[in-house]
Amino acid sequence: MMLLGVVLHSAQPYATWTFSIYTAFHDTAHTVVLSGLAFLIHLFRMPTFFVLAGFFGSLMWHARGTRALLQNRVKRVLLPLVLSWVALFPLIVLCAAFTVLGGPKGVAHIVQQLHSGALLAKNNLTFSQLLMQMGLVHLWFLYFLMLFYGATALLLWGVRQLPQKIKHLADNAFHQIVLQPIGVLLLAAVTWLTMVPMHPANKVTTGIEGTHAFLPPPAILLTYFVFFVFGWLLFRHKHLLSRLRDRAWLYASLGLGAAGLYAWLILHPPVAKPHLLQVAVASPAIWLLSLGIIGLAVRYFRQPTGLFQYLSEASYWVYLVHVPLTLLIPGLLIELSLPALLKFLLTCTGATLVSLLTYHYWVRSTRLGGLLNGRRLAPYAFWSSFRKFEKPAAAPIEAGSIS
Length: 403
Description:
The chain has one domain. It is globular, with a radius of gyration of 22 Å. The chain has about 400 residues and is mostly helical. The protein has 16 helices and no strands. About 70% of the residues lie in helices and about 0% in strands. The longest helix is centred in the first third of the chain and has 35 residues. About 5% of the residues have low confidence. Pfam families: Acyl_transf_3. This is Acyltransferase family protein.
């Protein structure tokens, strides 16, 4: 899910409709194909991520308890959040300014505008307003994760006070929700309720509303928390993963169909205020795609290759550092008369390669790699990347991804 973030953000400058910080720059080369790609990825990527985050958080909690879980997440989520934000926020601003002000030909103009404050003044912004507007940039999900771990710790304390009979009923209810196909509609109904307070969808704002704010809207927090809690409970009932595996293609196909209908309702609203109708289609689309993708992963990636393992270990770093690259590279390509899809491929490939190279040589076997991956990892032997792993020895739980 993290690597899909590189694809999503690389597509933004060349999509017909764009959002977030990428609205400040829109290449003259653009295509509706990348709008559709960005729309689809945005619909399921973060909900799926939070399901997985809840699943693996529950794994650690069952193995080590609440204190160890929170200590681990402070080290591997909160600390990277703070360090990354301090390092990347000014870099993102500079890369965005480079591209917005014309790329290589505008470097002198960039220096003058930044030094004089003219760039902020032109947009009626002070630095503090820029800070609040950009907020946590793409690191908001780490902030959400820390809030969710804290909330879950409180919930676990409260659940311990409940009678065993109530806990047993809750377990059975969750079991039936996953076991029965109609359970997806119940999950969608909950998400529908949490999405109703959000702004109506349009070409720019689709799916679960995004936020970079230090004080995010409660509706957005609650919507993602539902996915996190689902993943947490799914670990307790992990035998039900076989159901997701068996229904993977059904859920994914229905999810694509619902996503297509949702897109049509946005582009061709049938009523004056279509928000409730759009959300009623978006919520099952999000759940069907998320559960379908998890089911497909269980079905086809039970024995990953060495390359797949490597990319999984690198994905945290790649996601942290890719945004400045997806802002900088479009500026380097701005003067080239190339098709939008080719510029997208160059941006995506360039951002991925630079991120992976820095991970391989500067992160993987260093203290920073120990912080992100849970332990320092040995240098990777690329010649064996396509061989299947033999069954590995049990590894420390924190060695996996942050999810």
